[in-house]
Amino acid sequence: MNRRVLIAAALGAAAVMFAGLIIVPVLLGASRFMFGGGVAGGNCVTVAGAEAQPAAATDAKAIPSNYLQLYKTAGERFGIPWNVLAGIGKVETSHGTSNLPGVKSGENYAGAGGPMQFLQPTWDAFAVDGNKDGKKDRYDPVDAIPSAAAYLKHNGAPRRMRTAIFQYNHSWDYVNLVLDWAKRYVGGDFKVVQANGIECEDNELPANASALVQRIISFAMAQRGKPYVFGANGPDAWDCSSIIQAAYRTVGLNIPRTTFQQWPFGVKIAKGKEQPGDLVFFNSGPGTSSNSPGHVGMVIGKGKMIVASCSTCVPAIGVKPYKRSDWVGTTRPLARPDLKKKVNELAAE
């Protein structure tokens, strides 16, 4: 490579880096407009009815009766519209009637088997014993169909149905084909829910909280839709502990910056006694343990928290359940004597 080429390459690389320095802040700054955060929920998605089971239409008569009943039973059990399960069953194996390899025995070229076409590792992870006979047979629709429902549920259905179907088979053409059949089976009047960000049902502030706590939660809720960036301190991106520190700071209260510092800061509260504004901690992330949790969220009530989850989570910052297996404990910063004193001082000003 001659010197002229080297110089040109260096200038090109510099230009790319400079463009990146400009583009990244612009994108981060634009996030508040792109995602429409805020407690009012400008771009929220209504998830009510996501688990509804629509009535079967004429085209559903072409589904074998035993499969149709299994789709409906699994749909009710897992909260997945039965016609989506039927759409998958149709596209995969025409409800088990296909004579291709891997439907009734063995595996196809991709290693999938059974009427709902499970790969063995996926089956091992999500298989359901549908008829309670002590066996999980991926070639038996009694087991395979509820297992498909469980797998969709794991991947976000019914509130993120298109995403869940895509995880079933990584092709958007596949997703569209499944949903085309799902519509046909209920007469065409059917639309799935795809809540990638703010759910309208989560917009209300807790009525039983004080005005101070409502202000704290309101700030955190207004950050929904923004990206998670580890180490970020806002205003365009946050991590799990910085968003909480900033929320308390908006009412004039100072708490530590990191999760490891926030855990011993507040007064420990027994599980089941948590209130809006309390902090919930999780044994999640590198270098963490039950005595040193590495992830934190803020209780808003009804078993839910506002939390900055991770950079690849959808949403990265949003309202999610906190009653999960890695929940370590709860603290109440506002129960500390020094914060109680500060609250009284602020009220007197």
Task: Indicate the radius of gyration in whole angstroms.
Answer: 25 Å
Residue windows where pLDDT falls under 50 for at least 5 positions? 1-41
Largest sheet: 6 strands, antiparallel
Q: End-to-end span in angstroms?
A: 71 Å
Reported CATH architecture of the largest domain? Alpha-Beta Complex
* The level-1 CATH class of the largest domain: Alpha Beta
Structural class by secondary-structure content: alpha+beta
**Bulk shape:** elongated
The CATH superfamily title of the largest domain: endopeptidase domain like (from Nostoc punctiforme)
- What is the mean pLDDT? 87
Number of domains: 2
| Portion in helices | 40-55%
Arrangement of strands in the largest sheet: 3-8-4-5-6-7
SSE series: HHHEEHHHHHHHEEEEEEH
Strand content: 5-15%
What does this structure look like?
The protein has 349 residues and is an alpha+beta fold. The chain has 2 domains: 58-185, Orthogonal Bundle (Lysozyme); 209-348, endopeptidase domain like (from Nostoc punctiforme) (endopeptidase fold (from Nostoc punctiforme)). The chain contains 11 helices and 8 strands. The strands form 2 sheets. It has a 6-stranded antiparallel beta sheet with strand order 3-8-4-5-6-7. Strand 5 and strand 6 form a beta hairpin. Helix 2 packs across helix 3 (82-93). It comes from Actinomadura soli. InterPro entries: Lysozyme-like_dom_sf, NLP_P60_dom, Papain-like_cys_pep_sf, Peptidase_C40, SLT_2.
